[in-house]
Amino acid sequence: MNTLLPVSIVVETYNLVEGTDRARFAAALGAAAAAAGQRGGEVLVTDVCGGPDVAGIVAAAAPEARLLDAVGLSYDEAKMLAAVESRGESIVYLDSDCEPVGDWPETLLETLRRYPLHAGVGGLTRYQGEGLVAAVMSVMDFGFLIPVEERPLACYAFNNAAFHRSALLACPSASGGLRCGCFAHAQALLRQGTPMILAPRAVARHDLPPMVRERSRQGHDTIAACWENADLPEARFLWLGVFSVPLFYGMRVALDWKRLAVGYRHLGLGPLGLVGALALVVPMRLLDAMGMIHAFVVGRRAESWGGF
Fold first, then answer.
1. How far is it, in rounded angstroms, from Cα 209 to Cα 287?
2. What whole-number distance in Å separates Cα of residue 247 and Cα of residue 180?
3. Which member of 101, 188, 214, 244 lies 3.0 to 4.6 Å from 203 by CB, making a disulfide possible if both were Cys?
4. pTM score, two decimals?
5. 129 or 297, which is more confident?
6. What are the residue ranges of helices labelled H in the chain?
7. More confidently predicted of 180 and 167
8. Using one digit for the tens of pLDDT, what is the confidence trace for 266-288?
9. What is the mean pLDDT of residues 194-221?
10. Which domains, and CATH codes, for the chain?
11. Can you tell me the distance from the alpha carbon of 43 to that of 29, in angstroms, rounded to the nearest whole number?
């Protein structure tokens, strides 16, 4: 397909299946349509839901958007379908449960232009809210974006990212048995010398998900990621089976503490808030441990798990 447009902005619907509010989806579509219109680009919507509901929202919020049939596809598969079908030199991804802030996506695209030999750019995703729970959840799920400075990324958030289309098609994302394969994809890009770059001013505020569901799912994926990638350092503990859970739990808590100590001010916390966040990590990561135990009980499986 000939490249005709400067940018394609992709909004997914996978999160609608998981409970994202339709109004948030419409708002994400509106932000994408406004940004694409200002830059002579296009909006694509990957529809994993099917039926008239999504089509009606798209027609009202972004009538110029192209709706792609992605029913039956995984989160990453739907993203890659959009990459194949896009007509833009650059591809920007925004999830339906995210609200872009400030000069998004110009910061993503400007950073992308400055790194023509890199695959793409990751924005800064944070959970909505100013309290301790939102801050701690942000570190747990998006702590790989700390320190908050322009630098190569070992992992990125697919809910707020931009790629050179040719680079993404040359090295596509594949989630395997995980919900999202961002870490494995970022590692593949690092190995070939075209890493993702963090654009810290390209901010998206993510809906705060139900805590038990999200934490247990993330815990399950901690073990599943080791099954998918035996080269991960922590994969060496898998032979212990369910008895490895305390080791995984301890490593996650230690990493959270380290990231909080480095990045607490970027989360809007002061010294007292940091102390509270460090304490809150301990019980919240126990919910992850529940998901880890679940992973060992059900065993390795082809499809991802959505949490309790």
1. 14
2. 24
3. 101
4. 0.94
5. 297
6. 14-17, 22-38, 52-61, 75-85, 106-114, 132-142, 165-170, 182-191, 211-228, 245-263, 271-298
7. 167
8. 999 999 999 999 999 999 999 99
9. 95
10. 5-206 (3.90.550.10), 211-298 (no CATH)
11. 8
